[in-house]
Amino acid sequence: MPDQLEMLRRITDDPSLSSAQKARALSLAAENMLPYPALDAETAKALDARVICDMFEGHAPYKPRYVLPDYAVVLTKGSDWLELPVPQDLDEALNTLMIAYHHVPSVTGMPVYIGKLDDLLLPFCTGVSDDDIYRKIKLFWRYIDRVLPDAFLHANIGPTDNRVARTILRVDAELKQIAPNLTLLYDPATSGDALLSQATGNIVECSKPHVANHPLHAATFDARGYGIVSCYNALPIAGGASTLTRINLKEVALRARDTRHFFTEVLPHYADLAFRLMRARIDYLFNHSGFFDSFLVTEGWIERDRFTAMYGIFAMAEAVDVLQAKAGQTGRYGHDAAANALGHRISRALSDLVQAQPMENVWRGRAMLHAQAGLSTDTGLTPGVRIPYGTEPDPVAHVQALAPHHAYYPSGISEILTLDETIKANPLAVFQLCKGALASGFREFTANVASNDLVRVTGYMIRLSDVAKHNAQKGSRTNTTGLGAEAAAKTAILQHQPRVMGQEFVAGHRQ
Amino acid sequence: MQAIVSKTLLFSCVDGPGNRMVLFLQGCNFSCPTCHNPHTKRRCNDCGLCIPVCAPKALSLVEGKIAFDASLCTNCDDCLRICPISANPMVSLMDVGQVLALTRQNLPFLTGITLSGGEATAQLKFSVALFTAIKEARDLAHLTCFVDTNGHLGPVGWDKLLPVTDGVMLDIKAFDEGQHIYLTGRGNDKSLASAELLAASGKLYELRLLMIPGKTDTRRELEALVALVKRLGAHTRVKLNAFHNHGVRGPASAWETMTKDRLEQIATTLRAAGLSQVITPVVWL
Ligand code: SF4
Ligand code: SF4
User: Which among A399, A500, A510 is the nearest to B13, CB-wise?
Assistant: First the structure.
């Protein structure tokens, strides 16, 4: 197959990839030379037309998309398989985690979840000085960024206010690295304003962390808990997600005669095809790949029945605008109350469809709805239920337009609020905005300060200077830069409208 | 009790601490050639001149009064450019109840509310009534009430407003009387007296100074500033704004723009003279 050989050759010869990145790309290419899990003709056709999409996860799903090990297991029991004794102090605990991460697969080939670090490390901090904790975490942070340089890799802290959480926030703001990505689980009843204000201060410094609405997530999951990983996906700990498929709602809307047809026939039809696609992939993973024979399962890091299936959707904005146009309405998604209400109705319909569909080998027997944050190849399509780039209203109106969606997306939904850098002189405004967003029902608060070198692209962090370098063919140390550069060139991502209202009253303008 | 409001913002991080809902009240008692929002100066006299320039037909005359349909407006600002008296046909009338309702709708997002302008204190009765209502409402009392003002208000006015106000941002346009008249059309005695009165009451949040090269950044002006701040307390927040001629109409559009280097130099001078909180712009245009 000369085509395929040529593709492999392009990878080996690409000057912008490191040898590790080449090895990874080669393995993906090899996997995709295998035949796809058997699909019926209708599903295959919808997949070909990308009305439904498998996120290009590969033709032979031999590992789950996202794995969230319960790292407490290896920290309290050690590992026979890895020949690790039970760690006795903070150094040993950090060392054990650093080893553990290398044995956790995911769709990116790197772990997407490195644990709820404060819970994991606090038991080892008794009698350790603040200064020692700081120095050790700083080294640990540097290790993660240099050895596992992937912005999908995610650490969690909170909801309690504690020494480890605070130290991590301090180190993260100092180092401003891409990895790890960071989420603070925030509970207004227990976290306290001081911790949240340290976090929102960090957002002003480096657009991290995200702030997760802990009470909402906790109610969705069980006592074993949840983690926030990759692009703000909320998933069961000691499990994860076996697969993520998504529906392009714009393509679905285009195939409908009108809104009624959309709700009664077209959406249920494509929703069904997405379930079929999901089943085929899950079947391969559970019944053919042998993944669940791994030591991760036998030692109890993960459990076979704690893997959900993420039922993703995107291009809500375009779908609503298409349906509005078919109905002769001009109101645009994000700005018009009727258009927004139509969007909320679509989310509710999707949620009902997912609830009604029993799934085998899926946690609790149902998939989980997910507002998917985009792929770098999505041209002219807005991630999840977001408002299109550059047309966002002020942050408060932005939150209010989208908040009603959040109740329907238990496995993750995120909006990016872009803030002009004048906010740097007033971090309290970010704090207040965050509180408002969470109180309004946002599951996740994410803000981007516009002039920052470190910015958020669809869901992951990237350095603008890295994008410039990549474009100059210099190569980049981090895996997500390639994706980001592609995303920036193809989509309108860098045109996110910097948004601090009252521009005319900004310093130097107010008279 | 109604206010003439030229604009309402639900999100502002440059009008006081935290996120603030801002009401820009129409009408100003100064006449500054440097104003970037000249359309907030005067009140509309319903002459109707702006109606034909509004392409989407958002403006009309109803019973001799200008009427504005916000749902048609494209924010092109053509009406503002054509208005011969620096008024704004898009203002709305809001009573205290309406402002409270809007505040409640956005409550979890708000640190407080700021009245700006135009000149907020020129609609004093409304300002007092609004802040009083906020302080008296159990669910709103935690909000801070701020005013952004040119200080052209006498002690009697402040006596009414300050008991219900948490902080004031005060513009001092110039220290030299002649320069002040040139820059605003009025003398500065009231503004300077306001600075002392506000500082004494503990409600002066910030002094704001517009640095115009050769006009307000001279040695004499800066010395007068230092002397004032030392009287008020050396820790007083002093916010330096840089004059920018972009968007200015009339003669001031030919004035030199303040450079970043020069402004930093001024800030250094002020700090060296003992001012402990000198703030310079985050964003340079
Ligand atoms: S805004 Fe100006 S032009 Fe328009 S009606 Fe009022 S005074 Fe006339
Ligand atoms: S700003 Fe609005 S009201 Fe004014 S001219 Fe433009 S469309 Fe008409």
Answer: A500
Enumerate the residues of chain B whose CB falls inside 8 A of the CB of residue A397: 10-11
Gap from A404 CA to chain B (nearest CA, Å)? 15
Mean pLDDT of the region B138-154: 96
Backbone angles phi, psi at A267, to 5 degrees: -65, -50
Whole-angstrom Cα distance, residue A296 to residue A319? 41
- Average confidence score pLDDT of chain B: 92
Q: Which of A245-249, A473-477, B183-187 has the lowest mean pLDDT?
A: A473-477
The CATH 3.30.70.20 portion of chain B extends over: 44-82
Same domain? For A203 and A269 the reply is: no
Tokens 């972009």 belong to which residue? B246
pLDDT in tens, A456-472: 443 344 666 666 665 66
Query: How many CB atoms are located within 10 Å of the residue B98 CB?
Result: 14
Q: CB–CB of B15 and A505 under 8 A?
A: yes
pLDDT (average), residues A284-301: 95
Residue A415 falls inside a structural domain: yes
Confidence of residue A250 (pLDDT cuts 50, 70, 90): very high
Ranges A390-394, B36-40, B229-233: which has the least confidence: B36-40
In a domain, A50, yes or no: no
Confidence at residue A24, expressed as pLDDT on a 0 to 100 scale? 84
Into which CATH architecture does domain B2-39+92-279 fall? Alpha-Beta Barrel (3.20)
**Could you give the ipTM of this predicted complex?**
0.87
pLDDT of residue B181: 93
* pLDDT averaged over every residue in chain A: 88
Topology, domain B44-82:
Alpha-Beta Plaits (3.30.70)
Partner A contacted by B8 (CB < 8 A): no
A16: pLDDT confidence band, cut at 50, 70 and 90?
Answer: confident
Portion 283-342 of A in contact with B at CB < 8 A: none
Where in chain B are all domains bearing CATH 3.20.20.70? 2-39+92-279
Co-location of A186 and A72 in the same domain: yes
| Residue A357 neighbours by CB under 8 Å, 6+ apart | A275, A366, A367
In terms of C-beta distances under 8 Å and separation of at least 24 residues, what long-range contacts does A328-336 make, across chains too?
A332/A391, A333/A387, A333/A388, A334/A387, A334/A388, A334/A391, A334/A392, A334/A393, A334/A398, A334/A401, A334/A402, A335/A391, A335/A393, A335/A401
Q: Which residue of A has its CA nearest to B12?
A: A501
Measured from the Cα of B45, ligand 1's closest atom is: 7
CATH number for the domain including A481? 3.20.70.20
Q: Does B39 touch chain A (CB under 8 A)?
A: no
Amino acid at position A281, single letter: R
Domain span at A479: 243-509
**Stretch among A187-191, A444-448, B281-285 having the lowest mean pLDDT:** B281-285
Using a CB-CB distance cutoff of 8 angstroms, which residues of chain A are in contact with residue B34? 511
Between chain A and chain B, the number of residue pairs with CB atoms below 8 A apart is: 123
Domain count, chain A: 2
In a domain, A46, yes or no: no
User: In residues, how long is chain B?
Assistant: 285
Q: Which string of DSSP letters, residue by residue, matches A286-327?
A: HHTS-GGGSHHHHTTSS-GGGEEEEEEEE-HHHHHHHHHHHT
From chain A, the residues in CB contact with B108 under 8 A are 435-436, 439-440
Does the pLDDT of residue B284 top 70, yes or no? no
- A189 Cα to chain B: minimum distance (Å): 15
Q: How far is B150 from chain A (nearest CA, A)?
A: 9
Residue range B223-253, pLDDT digits in tens: 999 999 999 999 999 999 888 776 567 788 8
At residue B209, the pLDDT reads: 96
Burial class (CB in 10 A: 0-12, 13-18, 19+), A380: exposed
